[in-house]
Give the backbone structure.
Amino acid sequence: MFHTFLGATVLIAALLAPPASAAPLTLQAALDRAVQRSETARASRASLLSASEAAQAAAQLPDPMLRVGVDNLPVTGADRFSTTREPMTMKRIGVSQEWLARDKREARQAAADAVVGKEAVQTRIAAAEARLRTALAYVEASYAEQTLKLATVMEHHAHEQYEAARSRLASAAGASEEVLRLAAARGMLEDESAELRQQRSAAEVALARWVGTPVGELEAVPSLATPSESEYVSGDPTVVSLQREIDVARGAAAVAATNSRPNWTWELAYGQRTGYSDLVTFGVSIPFPVAPGARQDRETAAKLALATKAEADLAEATRSATADYLSLVSDLRRLEERIARYRQSVLAPAQQRTATASAAYRSNQATLTLLFEARHAEVDGQRKLLALQRDLAKRQVELAYRPIPTGGGL
């Protein structure tokens, strides 16, 4: 039995040792890769660039307009279509410019800047989403690997015990029923290990989707700090996005309000006449709002209503983010308590049972089957503990990576 335990110890050490050819992938490295290769983040950066370029032109005056024409051209009689015989005929060239008041240009610039701010937030949201999904996939892959290692160790134990039972049967010291039970147990563990390998493969594929390369050895999931309620809620992607939506809606309402004062257009033209003095024409066009209550005021009211909607959506999103935080923290505390209780009330007795069964077997007071059952119960307890630790790590990831990082960095 000493050789059996020694073999199992060597196997565990070999399984837990990382390959020498490549350093294990860390969680932070996986997050960095995911953000760098995220197409959603790249699309958001393109939208930000587009909004920034548009904002550069938001406060500019409209392009001037070149005006060319012929005034009072005769179309009948002997002088028809002649530009030189009729004294009233004049060839004209001029330029006109629509003028926007400073407050209008400032309002348009503020509205464009609000859109830039919104797109900047969307870029950070896309990066945060990539980090969150990658971290969750990392947790799944890491714990799938650890669970498979436990199952592999248990499968190795079952194989050794089956071979020992066959030897005992050959020497007439064992019972055929015991051999059959161990053979069945070994077959079940082999099938279970195959299922866990499939689950690990699926988890590695899910992680590779984010990091872009096949997944090898993973470092253990580090302990993550739990943010405060205010940090979580203020960084919630929906909350931050709706705060920018309010800015955009208010900016659009401010622009609409300035439209109640129409833009003036001035024009300067030079007219040439044959045989007579040339003429210069200057004029100003002023739109006259005949029914501002039916158009301009309605447009402003519509934009203000969108701002009110965004404010209500923000209040609701804040409540939802607060509830999510309290739920996640509650799950976190509950899982921590369960893990501590499970270690003390389940895993520790299971380990003592294995030690007792091993001692009894060495003194020929217990069968291999009893020893196998004790070991199986212990490993099964360790797997249950891993499942709880995985759930705890996922809650920590959601708390740590769902909010947008402060400081504006991606």
Summary: Confidence is low (pLDDT under 50) at residues 1-20. Residues 236 and 403 are 5 Å apart (CA to CA). Strands lie at 65-71, 90-99, 264-272, 279-285.
